[in-house]
Structure formats: C-alpha cells, structure tokens
Amino acid sequence: MPINVLIVDDHAVVRAGIRMLLESDPDMNIVGEGENGAEAIRLMEELKPDVILMDVTMPVMDGVEATRRIKAMRQEGKTDKIPAILSLTIHEGADYFFQMLQAGASGYVPKRAAPEDLLHAIHVIAEGNVFLEPTVAKDLVADYLTRVQDGSERDSYDGLTEREREVLTLIAEDETNQGIANLLNISVKTVERHRENIMGKLNLHTRTELVKYAIRKGLISLED
Predict the structure, then answer these.
(1) 112 phi, psi to nearest 5 deg
(2) Is 212 helix (H, G, I), strand (E, B) or coil?
(3) In angstroms, rounded to a whole number, what is the distance separating the alpha carbons of residues 153 and 148?
(4) What is the pTM of this model?
(5) How many helices (H) and strands (E) does the chain have?
(6) Which of 13, 131, 153, 187 gets the highest tally of CB atoms within 10 A of its CB?
C-alpha cells in the first residue's frame, strides 16, 4: 500500500520541490499540502495521512505546537489514527531538534539532507520506527550524557528490574509481545505487565518514545 503523505511548509517553492521528489517514489502518495501548523491539524483530520512532513518555523502556528496538538488528539480520544511526523527543516540547532522530539515527532531531517535520505526516512517512520539523521543522533547522545551526569537519566533507568530492562530492549528492537515471551520463556501476560511497569516508571506513553529512550541509553543502536 502507498504511504499517504501530507507536506506542511510555509514556502511554496519548497513544497513543490518536495512534491517532485516524493512523486519519483512509487510508494508515495501526496494527499495534500499546508503552509502552517493550523492547516496541518485541519488537513490531518480531513485527509488521514500516514506521514506528515512538518517544517518547524511557520506563521500562525509552528511545527512544534502543531505536532504537540496532533499527538495529544489520540490521548484525548479525538481520533483513532495519528500520523507519524517527520520534521524537515532548515534549522539544525539542538533546541529545535529536542522540541520536535519532545512534541512527538518520529524523526528529524535537515533540508540539506540527500533526497534519498528523506525518502528513506519517510519509509522508516511510516513503519512505526524512528529516524534520526547522524548529526542529530550525535546531539541526542550528548544530551543523554548530560542527563547521566546530573543524575536525571540514571534515576529512571536504575528503577527498572533486570527483567524489565531485558523487555525494554526487546520492545525497542520491535519484538512483538509473543516474540518477547518466546525469547524470555515467559507468558504474554507477563510481558504485558512488564511493558506497563516500564512505561509507568519511565513516564513513556508510546513505542516511539520508548525507542528514543533506548537509543539514548545505548540499549539499541541506530542501525537497529
């Protein structure tokens, strides 16, 4: 099935360039375009895309706020389908990067990236995974090391049992509950209980957040 993509950027020339690139991939289907975060929300509800390419700095509503509001819709029960959001932006500062990830984006790609990298990133997040461009990943690791030094990251991880750490790693590696049960020789219900405990202790709510956490902790590599 094609990946339905919504392009959101306040520059028409940029949107046209992205459209041309995406149309070169037979797996991509562009369902619409928007020029600010408010339009992204409206079009998301109307068009039900699988992926939103979201710029960061836009008039009316920026990409960070739009991403935050879109991700909140599921928790509020306003929709049963939330698209994966890929931040595509000229800004490469760590502050923009972390704001988008914290808002709920599944990836962050600078506009200087090679065309094939953007197409690959869309495929990756459409499958429910996380995509981080190498320089962005470096910033994520640096942030993790800072958190370790001040104790904030260590406290949460140290609260997990050894079994919960094993389950955490396997979930991040995209193993199913049944797969984890088979590997660890435990029941599926036990896996589900461990998953709930992990999410609660780490204050995580989605698999995307869990994968980002596992990358920061070094439990899985970006190649995984």
Answers:
(1) -80, -5
(2) helix
(3) 5
(4) 0.66
(5) 11, 6
(6) 131
Q: Which of 83, 5, 8, 79 is nearest to 39 (CA)?
A: 8
DSSP string, 47-58: H--SEEEE-SS-
Report the greatest alpha carbon distance in the chain. Answer: 55
Q: What is the pLDDT of residues 86-125, one digit of tens each?
A: 998 887 666 677 788 878 899 888 888 889 999 999 999 9
Contact 108, 125 (CB under 8 A): no
Q: Using alpha carbons, list the distances in angstroms from residue 162 to 25, 166, 194, 198.
A: 44, 6, 11, 11
Other CB atoms closer than 10 Å to residue 154's CB: what's the count? 12
CB-CB contact of 100 with 67 (8 Å):
yes
- Return d(Cα 69, Cα 49) in angstroms, integer: 16
- Buried/exposed 156-175: b ≥16 CB within 10 Å, e otherwise: bbeebeeebbbbbbbbbeeb
User: Which domains, ranges and CATH numbers included, belong to the chain?
Assistant: 3-132 (3.40.50.2300), 151-217 (1.10.10.10)
Q: Which amino acid is at 89?
A: T
